[in-house]
């Protein structure tokens, strides 16, 4: 028997926060790649 | 190997890591189940070390060759190093609360890891402040090389100073005292994190190439 309680709440919190950070970064990469793959509309500023 | 395939392998690895950490590895005798945070915390910092080592390689490579592909490697790796150091610090803080009784303490390992994070956040901020690509790459390379000096300080801090954080049980000079099932679960998670890192790095570098031509 462990001298400590199981503290499952802390385990879930640690894995949950890590999942949010890693999935958030993955979504950021996907959004940035999508944004850059779109054709530029209207040309550059100052162009005729 | 395509980037997409690497992504699927990373996902498979992470699934295997969860099975290994929660299904295969036994409940730790002293800490109970809260010790399972180790399967996240340790692979995260090892991945961050890998990322910052690549920042060093990319920085030296750029200064030696002046080719921007080295700078792209350093920049992408720095971003990922910050991400994985963030995961390390947050998971360590959550693990510290039930085991040490505090969320944070100015222990040598914790403090040096926080400094490591701030150095590379500074590296990314510096990159954002310089518009000219060659000047940006040059300044960043200098910070990338100097910042790497912090990695051995973080790793050996638990030996060099009296610390609340436990000494290194892997990558240490002595044979690891970890029980085999726990070490195996750690290894599976380490491989999974490395695959995830490789996937993120490939995608981030591809985006950096697109950004240069945008």
Can you describe this structure?
The complex is a heterodimer of chains A (48) and B (214). Chain A contains 1 helix and no strands. Chain A is mainly alpha-helical and 48 residues long. Chain A is rod-shaped, with a radius of gyration of 22 Å. In chain B, helix 1 runs antiparallel to helix 7 (180-213), helix 2 packs across helix 7 and helix 3 (68-100) crosses helix 5 (133-147). The radius of gyration of chain B is 18 Å and the shape is globular. The model of chain B has no long low-confidence stretch (mean pLDDT 92). By secondary structure, chain B is mainly alpha-helical.
Observed structural traits:
heterodimer, A: mainly alpha, B: 214 residues, mainly alpha, Four Helix Bundle (Hemerythrin (Met), subunit A)
Give me the secondary-structure category of chain B: mainly alpha
Structural class of chain A: mainly alpha
- If interface size is counted as residues with C-beta under 8 Å from the partner's C-beta, which chains form the largest one? A-B, 24 and 32 residues
Give a quick account of the main beta sheet of chain B: strands, pairing sense, barrel closure. none
* Average pLDDT metric of chain A: 83
Summarize it.
The complex is a heterodimer of chains A (48) and B (214). With 48 residues, chain A is an all-alpha fold. Chain A is 62% helix and 0% strand.
Which secondary structure elements does this structure contain, and how are they paired or packed?
The complex is a heterodimer of chains A (48) and B (214).
Chain A: H1 8-37
Chain B: H1 3-24, H2 38-65, H3 68-100, H4 108-129, H5 133-147, H6 150-160, H7 180-213
Helix pairs in contact in B: 1-7, 2-3, 2-5, 2-7, 3-4, 3-5, 3-7, 4-5, 4-6
């Amino acid at each position: 028997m462990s001298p400590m309680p199981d503290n499952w709440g802390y385990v879930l919190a640690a894995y949950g926060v890590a999942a949010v950070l890693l999935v958030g970064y993955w979504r950021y990469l996907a959004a940035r790649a999508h944004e850059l793959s779109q054709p530029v509309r209207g040309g550059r500023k100052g162009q005729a | 190997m395509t980037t997409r395939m690497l992504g699927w392998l990373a996902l498979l690895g992470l699934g295997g890591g969860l099975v290994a950490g929660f299904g295969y590895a036994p409940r730790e005798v002293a800490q109970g189940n809260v010790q399972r945070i180790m399967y996240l915390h340790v692979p995260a910092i090892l991945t961050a070390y890998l990322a910052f080592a690549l920042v060093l390689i990319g920085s030296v490579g750029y200064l030696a060759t002046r080719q921007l592909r080295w700078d792209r490697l350093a920049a992408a790796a720095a971003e990922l190093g910050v991400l994985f150091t963030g995961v390390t610090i947050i998971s360590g803080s959550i693990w510290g609360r039930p085991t040490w009784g505090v969320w944070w303490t100015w222990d040598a390992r914790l403090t040096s890891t926080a400094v490591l994070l701030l150095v590379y956040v500074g590296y990314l901020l510096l990159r954002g402040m310089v518009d000219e690509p060659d000047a940006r790459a040059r300044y960043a390379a200098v910070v990338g090389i100097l910042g790497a000096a912090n990695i051995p300080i973080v790793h050996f801090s638990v030996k060099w100073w009296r610390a609340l954080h436990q000494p290194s049980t892997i990558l240490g000079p002595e044979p690891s005292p970890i029980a085999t099932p726990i070490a195996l679960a750690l290894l599976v998670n380490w491989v999974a994190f490395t695959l995830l890192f490789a996937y993120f790095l490939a995608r981030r570098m591809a985006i950096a190439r697109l950004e240069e031509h945008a």
